[in-house]
Amino acid sequence: MENNKKHLGYGEITYKGLLKISEYIERHKNKNSQFLDIGSGYGKSVRLIAEINYIKSFGIEINAERNNIAKKTSYSNQNGWTNYIYGDILDRLLMLDNFDFILCNNLLFDDITTQKIIDNCKKNSTIFLTKIDGIDINNVHHEVMNINVSWTNKLTKMYKIII
After folding, report:
1. Measured between alpha carbons, how far is 161 from 141 in angstroms, rounded to an integer?
2. Which end of the chain, N or C, is less packed with Cβ atoms under 10 Å?
3. Using one digit for the tens of pLDDT, what is the confidence trace for 70-100?
4. What are the φ and ψ backbone dihedral angles of 14, each rounded to 5 degrees?
């Protein structure tokens, strides 16, 4: 984060946007696949992916209040398949090796943070990012998806990167 400050801004990918990610996961998952949302906020994506894609889904959130609300409101038909972690992903980079699909709304992350996240993902995993400026993705496959988000009525680019 810039100047070691934690960014606590908030904006979400809408349900319609999350369904596009879910469709991709459905086509590429296996029986052991797991999903992680970095900056999971109130846990909407974690619940949606668990319920629709029937895979274990995790969220990590740096804001304690948001993380607690996610835990309290995590009513799902996939009980035990959703997990919420309070903390900073930079303190838990090694956990990224456990996930096949990672969502990271990184608009407020500096490039160094995003690069560390990418560098610690396991081989053949897919990460969804909202910005890639300043990120070294020359040696990985990447595509653009247009998704719906809460901060504008226009479709926003999301970058699907296969590590």
Report:
1. 6
2. N
3. 988 876 655 688 999 999 999 999 999 999 9
4. -70, 170
Between 9-23, 29-43, 67-81, 145-159, the lowest mean confidence (pLDDT) is in: 67-81
C-beta separation of 82 from 74 below 8 A: yes
Q: Which two tokens stand for residue 10?
A: 């908030």
Query: What pTM does this model have?
Result: 0.87
Q: How confident is the model at residue 141 (pLDDT cuts 50, 70, 90)?
A: confident
Please report, for residues 16, 18, 71, the alpha-carbon distance to residue 158 in angstroms, rounded to integers and kept in the order given. 13, 11, 27
What top-level class would CATH report for the domain 10-162? alpha beta
Query: Tokens standing for 155?
Result: 């479709």
Distance CA(109)–CA(111), nearest Å, equals: 6
Strands 141-149, 152-162: pairing is antiparallel
HSE-up of 63 (CA within 13 Å, CB side)? 14
Contact 58, 46 (CB under 8 A): yes
d(C-alpha 22, C-alpha 161), whole Å? 15
Spans of all domains in the chain: 10-162
